């Protein structure tokens, strides 16, 4: 759903190439640029400074946009980089061990898989053409994999499923997979689950909601991580919680039918990348100060799963 691209720094040493790539990457486009190596942005600026044909005003624009690109449109994974080798040699090694979806370079003459010439890059190329909507099977791994890269690179994670029930394994299984991806590269600073409070369902519960959360979630959440569970109810004249979402500070993904795994075969759900405007609205809907719903309760769950259990 969201792919990681390696981009040769020298390929972005002019305004035309930089602007095109910058406009076409980000969570809403399903493309993130790999921060490979960690000094990738400095390498881009160095390449721009070496280009004598690049105008000062264009170099300044690139410097400004590069800061935003670093903040929200890049993926920093734990990829080793050998400073004794050049960028392309390191890429060759990565493509053997942990391949990028594609490599964007000044030419495609290097004999490595999935390399694209930046001058020939357009939406028609299958490696660049990323669908923003998909139909997937309602299986835990497939549901979670749609958000894998987003979770790996994010620090603040909100999982929204109005009908989530911690006592049902079909919900916990997908949730566990999402959590696994969330701490695969680092420990997030904030992770939350948001559900809808329903009076009728609450009356029928055989056990207390809080007890259920405190009983089941520590088995899923790793040590050192705190899960905040929010329950919301509809305001008197307000909106009802909508589809299921995975939202982070980077962007969001919508699951139309459900985040719970279907027991059996044949069930599917539509999954879509959120546009920036829709993502911003839904993000605000689930923040305390701007919430679209009334808060019923908030439960803090401390992780009990040892990292060695992964």
Tell me what the structure shows.
With 310 residues, the protein is of the alpha/beta class. It has two domains: 3-120, 3-Layer(aba) Sandwich (Rossmann fold); 133-309, Endonuclease, Chain A (2-Layer Sandwich). Helices cover 32% and strands 22% of the residues. The protein has ten helices and 13 strands. An eight-stranded mixed beta sheet has the order 6-12-11-10-7-8-9-13, with helices on both faces. It has a five-stranded parallel beta sheet with strand order 3-2-1-4-5. Helix 1 (15-24) runs parallel beside helix 3 and helix 2 (40-50) packs antiparallel against helix 3 (56-72). The longest helix has 17 residues, at 56-72. The mean pLDDT is 94.
List the helices and strands and how they pair.
Elements: E1 3-7, H1 15-24, E2 31-34, H2 40-50, H3 56-72, E3 74-75, H4 87-97, E4 102-105, E5 115-117, E6 133-137, H5 140-145, H6 148-152, E7 156-160, H7 169-182, E8 190-196, H8 199-204, H9 209-216, E9 226-233, E10 244-248, E11 251-255, E12 268-273, H10 276-285, E13 294-302
Helix pairs in contact: 1-3, 2-3
Strand content: 15-25%
* CA-based shape: elongated
Structural class from helices and strands?
A: alpha/beta
Give the C-level CATH assignment of the largest domain.
Answer: Alpha Beta
Q: Report on the biggest sheet.
A: 8 strands, mixed
What's the total count of β strands? Answer: 13
Distance between the termini: 24 Å
Q: What is the strand arrangement across the widest sheet? A: 6-12-11-10-7-8-9-13
As a whole number of angstroms, the C-alpha radius of gyration is: 22 Å
Helical content, roughly?
A: 25-40%
In the CATH scheme, what's the topology name of the largest domain?
Endonuclease, Chain A
In N-to-C order, the SSE pattern is EHEHHEHEEEHHEHEHHEEEEHE
- Pick out the low-confidence regions: none
């Amino acid at each position: 759903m969201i792919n990681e691209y390696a981009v040769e720094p020298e390929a972005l040493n002019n305004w035309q190439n930089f602007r095109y790539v910058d406009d076409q990457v980000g969570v809403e486009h399903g493309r993130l640029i790999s921060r490979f190596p960690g000094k990738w942005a400095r390498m881009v600026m160095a390449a721009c400074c070496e280009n004598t044909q690049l105008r000062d005003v264009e170099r300044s624009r690139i410097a400004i946009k590069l800061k935003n690109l670093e903040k929200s449109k890049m993926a920093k994974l734990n990829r080793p980089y050998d400073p004794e080798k050049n960028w392309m040699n390191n890429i060759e090694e990565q493509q053997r061990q942990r391949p990028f979806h594609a490599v964007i370079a000044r030419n495609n003459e290097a004999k490595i898989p999935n390399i694209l010439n930046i001058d020939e890059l357009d939406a028609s190329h299958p490696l660049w053409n990323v669908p923003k909507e998909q139909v997937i099977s309602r299986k835990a791994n497939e549901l979670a994999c749609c958000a894998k890269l987003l979770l790996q690179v994010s620090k603040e994670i909100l999982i929204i499923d109005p009908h989530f029930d911690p006592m049902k394994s079909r919900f916990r299984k997908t949730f566990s997979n999402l959590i696994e991806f969330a701490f695969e590269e680092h420990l997030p600073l904030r992770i939350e689950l948001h559900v809808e409070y329903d009076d009728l369902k609450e009356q029928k519960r055989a056990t207390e909601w809080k007890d259920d959360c405190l009983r089941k979630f520590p088995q899923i959440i790793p040590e050192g991580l705190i899960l905040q569970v929010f329950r919301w109810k509809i305001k008197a004249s307000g909106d009802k919680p909508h589809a299921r979402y995975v939202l982070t500070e980077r962007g969001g993904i919508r699951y139309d039918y459900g985040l719970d795994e279907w027991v059996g075969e044949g069930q599917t759900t539509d999954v879509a990348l959120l546009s920036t405007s829709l993502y911003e609205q839904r993000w605000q809907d689930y923040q305390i100060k701007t919430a679209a719903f009334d808060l019923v309760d908030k439960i803090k769950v401390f992780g009990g799963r040892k990292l060695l259990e992964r």
